[in-house]
């Protein structure tokens, strides 16, 4: 054991030793001895102290100088010492002449024990950092500590006459020093000190509230652990007040102390060990539902007792009560429990219904702009939230949003993902019990987000499909207009002129043979030019080499055309199946464009085209040993054309610059069933 961890071991041993002494003394003391000494079971106080120390031993083990851990530990040791004082005082007063330290034990219980009131306010103003708040709230925190210590300091050396003024009797003379102040004056001082000490607790709560409002990140999570402990203390206090049973009350208060100490230790050591928000929400819902059900159970018992009165004996009344509870009241109580849960936290418990209703709503709303309000309302209704904002990322960087309720000061965001793509986000309140999500709540939110992501994705795909159709129609009509213009403005006038020249040549054939020859020659040239225009139009629609030679031979021809003294181009193929017309054109155009870029911009000496067939895609790969593409180079028309041709068929491209130099262009063109059937 390292010296730094020695304090944790020492305080643990001290607490256990005092607990053991208290148990031994309480087993020896008779109830009459305790009554005569006006003392209780010291073991109970020692147990409280041991619990407090036990919760802080892990903190002292890791942080031996943590102020909050030492405040709670010293308070626990004082509890244990107070319990030992009770047990020893009862033992000593039962064995006159009094053994040593009997008067000190009485003094500890009657006067020193008041210092236990200082522990809680001091913890509240120090938690979670162990330091007082800065600024004016530091002054308030110091005032809290002074007020909390007012009554204990006055009681420390209070005159016996002042202590007995209200009817309290000291069991014996303690022999401890007293302040030389008249009893009536000191009684007024004690009244003021009592009021100051009581007021220190709400003022300490105000300090922790201000700290929580200013906190963020880890500190806020630590403070929520303390808030959960406060809720548990309220629940335990309610149980203690309701039952009025001494041992149950003691056990409830001990459990509350253990929960508080453990929560503080968790907040200091690892506040992220569990989702405290989910724990808080579940605790509040459970406490409310349990309280409602207990009240209804008691009302049922009271009503039956009032109706039946003395007409049935205890056995018959019990059987009738069980029959009524099982057959009539149990379903009603389940329904009431569901209503209470829905009123508190919405419909998050009915996971299947929420998801199915959302899916139905999204199916009825086909457009993203109408789906988003439905999604916002569904999330708000399911989780009983006052604010939900849904944002979907549109094309070209735009967004589409829908909002339910008014935005609070603090919110948190939940991404909406489809597979790996983030298609939007949900914005929810960050504070409040209803914003605290348990593991089941988070699973429900995930299902809702998944449904929304699928709907948004489907709507976006529908938009993309409509946009693609519009582009296809526009491209088709643009091609028709271009072909019509070329035929009307180019080929039409040329053929019309040829017809006129041939008519003129026929008229001049007998009288002027030379003019006829010139007209025929000019007509021949015009027809040759017209044929060239026709070939150009046909080549724009589909390269003739693909029909004449096939894809591989056409690429060989293109490679020969691109090869020069400074650039050598090779073509290779592996397992290339029969291809559809669309895939052939795309592969040819992509390879031709990549070779053109290598020849014009890369300064390459060698370029290679490779086709690799697969069961579902054709890989078109063009590599060169040129200069590559700089990081600051903006993609030009050629690279965009390569990507667009692949994307038109549902494929993808990859353009990289290997470390050994050059550029590598890869395009995967899918061999869909439709395209395969077209190829056959």
TrEMBL record:
Q: Where are the transmembrane segments?
A: 40-61, 68-85, 105-127, 139-165, 185-210, 222-242, 248-269, 281-304
This protein's GO cellular component annotations are: membrane
Which keywords does UniProt give here? Answer: ATP-binding, Kinase, Membrane, Nucleotide-binding, Phosphoprotein, Transferase, Transmembrane, Transmembrane helix, Two-component regulatory system
Q: Which SMART domains match?
A: HATPase_c
Specify the Histidine kinase/HSP90-like ATPase domain's residue ranges. 582-673
InterPro entries, from UniProt? HATPase_C_sf, HATPase_dom, Sensor_HK_TwoCompSys, Sig_transdc_His_kin_sub3_dim/P
GO molecular function, one example? phosphorelay sensor kinase activity
Catalysed reactions listed for this entry: ATP + protein L-histidine = ADP + protein N-phospho-L-histidine
Q: What is its EC number?
A: 2.7.13.3
Protein name, please? histidine kinase
């Amino acid at each position: 054991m390292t010296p730094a961890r020695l304090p944790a071991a020492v305080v643990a041993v001290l607490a256990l030793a005092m607990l053991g002494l208290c148990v031994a003394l309480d087993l020896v003391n008779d109830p009459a001895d305790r009554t005569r000494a006006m003392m209780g079971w010291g073991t109970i106080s020692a147990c409280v102290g041991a619990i407090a120390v036990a919760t802080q031993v892990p903190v002292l083990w890791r942080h031996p100088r943590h102020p909050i851990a030492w405040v709670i530990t010293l308070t626990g040791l004082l509890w244990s010492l107070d319990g030992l004082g009770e047990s020893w005082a009862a033992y000593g007063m039962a064995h006159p002449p009094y053994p040593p330290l009997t008067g000190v034990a009485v003094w500890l219980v009657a006067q020193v024990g008041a210092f236990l009131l200082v522990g809680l306010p001091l913890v509240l103003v120090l938690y979670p950092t162990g330091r007082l708040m800065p600024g004016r709230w530091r002054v308030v925190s110091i005032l809290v500590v002074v007020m909390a210590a007012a009554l204990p300091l006055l009681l420390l050396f209070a005159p016996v006459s002042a202590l007995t003024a209200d009817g309290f009797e000291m069991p014996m003379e303690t022999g401890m020093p007293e302040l030389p102040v008249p009893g009536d004056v000191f009684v007024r001082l004690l009244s003021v000190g009592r009021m100051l000490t009581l007021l220190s607790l709400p003022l300490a709560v105000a300090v922790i509230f201000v700290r929580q409002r200013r906190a963020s990140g880890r500190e806020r999570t630590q403070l929520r652990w303390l808030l959960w402990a406060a809720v548990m203390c309220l629940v335990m206090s309610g149980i203690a007040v309701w039952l009025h049973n001494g041992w149950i009350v003691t056990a409830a208060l001990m459990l509350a102390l253990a929960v508080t100490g453990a929560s503080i230790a968790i907040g200091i050591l690892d506040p992220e060990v569990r989702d405290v928000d989910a724990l808080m929400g579940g605790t509040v819902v459970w406490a409310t539902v349990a309280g409602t059900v207990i009240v209804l159970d008691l009302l049922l018992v009271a009503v039956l007792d009032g109706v039946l009165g003395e007409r049935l004996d205890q056995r018959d009344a019990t059987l009738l009560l069980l029959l009524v509870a099982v057959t009539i009241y149990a379903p009603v109580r389940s329904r009431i429990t569901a209503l209470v849960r829905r009123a508190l936290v919405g419909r998050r418990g009915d996971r299947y219904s929420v998801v199915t209703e959302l899916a139905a709503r999204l199916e009825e709303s086909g457009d993203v702009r109408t789906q988003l309000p439905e999604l916002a309302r569904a999330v708000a209704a399911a989780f009983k939230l006052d604010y939900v904002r849904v944002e979907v990322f549109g094309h070209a960087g735009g967004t589409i949003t829908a909002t339910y309720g008014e935005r609070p000061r603090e919110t948190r965001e939940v991404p909406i993902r489809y597979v790996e793509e983030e298609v939007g986000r949900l914005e929810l309140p960050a504070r409040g019990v209803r914003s605290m999500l348990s593991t089941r709540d988070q699973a429900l939110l995930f299902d809702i987000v998944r449904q929304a992501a699928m709907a948004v994705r489907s709507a976006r795909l529908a938009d993309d499909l409509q946009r693609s159709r519009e582009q296809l129609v526009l491209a088709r009509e643009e091609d028709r207009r271009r072909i019509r213009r070329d035929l009307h403005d180019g080929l039409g006038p040329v053929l019309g002129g040829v017809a006129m020249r041939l008519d003129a040549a026929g008229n001049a054939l007998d009288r002027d043979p030379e003019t006829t020859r010139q007209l025929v020659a000019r007509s021949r040239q015009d027809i040759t030019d017209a044929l060239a225009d026709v070939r150009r139009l046909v080549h724009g629609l589909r390269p003739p080499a693909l029909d004449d030679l096939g894809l591989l031979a056409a690429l060989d021809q293109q490679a020969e055309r691109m090869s020069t003294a400074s650039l050598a181009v090779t073509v290779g193929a592996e397992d290339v199946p029969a291809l559809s017309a669309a895939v052939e054109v795309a592969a040819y155009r992509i390879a031709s464009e990549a070779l053109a870029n290598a020849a014009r911009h890369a300064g390459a000496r060698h370029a290679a085209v490779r086709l690799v067939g697969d069961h579902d895609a054709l890989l078109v790969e063009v590599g060169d040993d040129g200069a590559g593409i700089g990081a600051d180079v903006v993609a030009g028309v050629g690279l965009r054309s390569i990507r667009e041709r692949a994307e038109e068929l549902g494929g993808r491209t990859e353009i990289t610059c290997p470390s050994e130099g050059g550029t590598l262009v890869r395009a995967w063109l899918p061999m869909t069933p439709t395209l395969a059937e077209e190829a056959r």
